[in-house]
Specification:
single chain, alpha+beta, eight-stranded antiparallel β-sheet, binds ligand PPE
Length: 306
């Protein structure tokens, strides 16, 4: 990965190589950490914009609440610290990763009085699913691993422990030659991918899974709003894998994956086998918004300069 100079660590900027923890850190053993993934984009005028920073920081505070972690920062304080990290590293664009974890203290599942520590790292991160994915689309396979049931993993928390389910599915998909895994819920309906939400398009109507078993993606929410404003009908409804097989278009959304077309699912070619017209339309509008080229959506952007 491309390293940068500083990592924000409990309120101080420390050199990248010095941002270390003890091996008996609670979260390392039990997954008791929460995190965010945020993107900042460079604009044509030389400034930079962070996409939906307050919404990401609010979700981080909510993730802490869900897993009963006492986060010593407000959403506003996290926002400021994210900007400070980008500016200190002189990063005109990149990926921002805040993480709060239960530190070193007592061992055992019960987190007790162990300290809660927070880091914010940032680095340049290109297209998550490969440089060609945004245009050509990706091939995915249905995972043998189901998304955890709604009363087992609290999917609205972006919690580290939840990701073992994603890691199992991702390794399986990659080893079988696919770019990403499609995960079903325990009832067999389409849920989400290992780090993305999913949309399908049929006869110009856009459909995405309801919030039940998935992470409430901020990109998902942005695409729903954007598509409706562009005049598309958007339904939040359960659908099955065969409905996905026969869709005209399908795509993933996520901060890292942005808006990535899906060209093949379980050896079935989706639509024409490349990025479809609705996907392309939404992708173009989305990239214009994040780069500050559509003033109608400037309320989603936080500007910074260094
Ligand atoms: N579902 C999951 C399980 C998920 O991890 C993400 C984000 C999403 C949906 C989309 O959420 P949003 O980014 O708010 O639109 N996945 C993050 C982690 C990727 C990683 O490999 O790390 C991300 O995209 O930042």
């Amino acid at each position: 990965m491309q390293t940068t100079e500083f990592i924000w660590f409990d309120g101080k900027l420390v050199p990248w190589d010095s941002a270390k923890v003890h091996v008996l850190t609670h979260s390392l053993h039990y997954g008791s950490a929460i995190f965010e993934g945020i993107r900042a984009y460079a604009c044509a005028d030389g400034g930079s914009e962070v996409f939906r920073l307050p919404d990401h920081c609010k979700r981080m505070v909510n993730s802490a609440k869900i897993i009963r972690m006492e986060l010593p920062y407000t959403a506003e304080e996290l926002e400021k610290a994210c900007i400070e990290t980008m500016v200190a590293n002189k990063l005109p664009e990149g990926y921002i990763r805040p993480l709060s974890f239960v530190g070193y203290g007592e061992m055992g599942v019960y987190p007790g009085n162990n300290p809660v520590q927070t880091i914010i790292a940032a680095w340049p991160w290109g297209a998550y699913l490969g440089p060609e994915a945004l245009e050509k689309g990706i091939a995915i396979k249905t995972s043998t691993f189901a998304r955890s049931p709604v009363n087992s993993s609290m999917s609205k928390a972006k919690a580290a422990g939840n990701y073992i389910n994603s890691i199992l599915a991702k390794i399986e998909a990659k080893e079988d030659g696919y770019d990403e895994a499609l995960m079903l819920d325990t009832a067999g309906f389409v849920s989400e991918a290992t780090g993305e939400n999913i949309f399908i398009v049929r006869d110009n109507i856009i459909k995405t899974t309801p919030l039940t078993s998935i992470l409430g993606g901020i990109t998902r929410d942005s695409i729903i709003t954007l598509a409706r404003n562009l005049g598309y009908e958007v339904q939040e409804q359960q659908f099955t894998r065969d409905e996905l097989y026969t869709a005209d278009e399908a795509f993933f959304t996520g901060t890292a994956a942005e808006l990535t077309p899906i060209r093949e699912v379980d050896h079935r070619v989706i639509g024409a086998g490349h990025r479809g017209p609705v996907t392309k339309h939404l992708q173009e509008e989305f990239f214009a918004i994040v780069k500050g080229e559509n003033p109608k959506y400037s309320f989603w952007l936080t500007r910074y300069k260094f």
